[in-house]
Input
Amino acid sequence: MSDRASDMVSHEDPGDAGYSDGRDIDTRIAELSGEASDQLIKTDQISKSKALVNRSAADEPTYYQQPLLKRSVWSIDIPLYYFCGGAAGAALALGAALQVRRDPELRDFSRHCHWIGIAGSSVGAVLLIHDLGKPSRFLNMMRVFRPTSPMNMGAWILGGGAPTAIATGLFINRGGFLGALGELTGFASGGFGSALAGYTGVVVSNSAIPVWQEARHWMPVLFMASSVASAGSLLDLLYEHRRASRISFAFGTIGRVAELVAANQVENSARNLPKVAAPFKNGPTSILWKASMVLGTASLIVSAVPGKSAKRRKVAGVLGVLGSLALRFAVHYISNASAEDARASFQHQRQRLPASAAVTRRSSAGSPAE
Output
């Protein structure tokens, strides 16, 4: 290395010398370019990274005290998208199920379900595109059809769910060809809605985040249940009808019970490894997670109180909506906390070492070379 290069590569903080470009990159050594190069690192993230480097080593192994994973660059648009898309999907599925019964008294209720689906899927699409930065990125996701990619399939699900929901809302109660078209798109939107309600749980659990990898079998169930609970809560708030109230009560109650059960299973799955389960026990993420459980339980209790009361239904609906929102934000921030834990990834990966080592030993013992 030349003297000039040696002078350029130093251990001093590039930001302190005035050579940082705001992304923790020393411009004397390298420059970032390309479409993703405008993403800036927050100051608190840089400070946290430096603190990890300077921290004394503990008993658990790490990679020089540095996290192996980066926190997501997603904004709060994504947990809001989880909520809006999930509630919309569950409402569309319920609306399609009501169509099967062909009960004239429930046609208006079915229409309300479809309009909740229209609003939720449309708002969800706006939130997703806003987080992506520009509409062309969403369109680029649909240039391929890849069933093995949950995120690619999610783009197609959303791309099919919103238009079919809008067509259903416009045509379902008309006669003739348009009415038949509305019936057809209603069933199609129900199929897309069922997938929309739970696919985000598959996306989250398909990541390398240690906490969700441990709970990957229950995350889709949790997202689906939370979607049903939030849709039932919204229907309690927005629609008043005797028969419809019984249906939305049963629908929402099933979702609330399943949400609490799945959340408990998710947390129990993570407890297999203490460091992986840390976000459920410590810090702001634990408060947010517990708040979602408390709100969901309160919504279930209030809705189960005997007697008919519109005010009680609305209280249960508000608690259910807040609980589902808190859950989606808890998932988002727990993801970041788990990724930034320098020891969680090591503990999660090294639990598989004994088994793999045993397989290697058996393979070596039976090789012709030996």
Observations:
- Residues 310-340 form the longest helix (31 residues).
- The chain is about 70% helix and 0% strand.
- The two ends are 45 Å apart (CA to CA).
- The domain at 73-206 is CATH 1.20.1630.10 (Formate dehydrogenase/DMSO reductase fold).
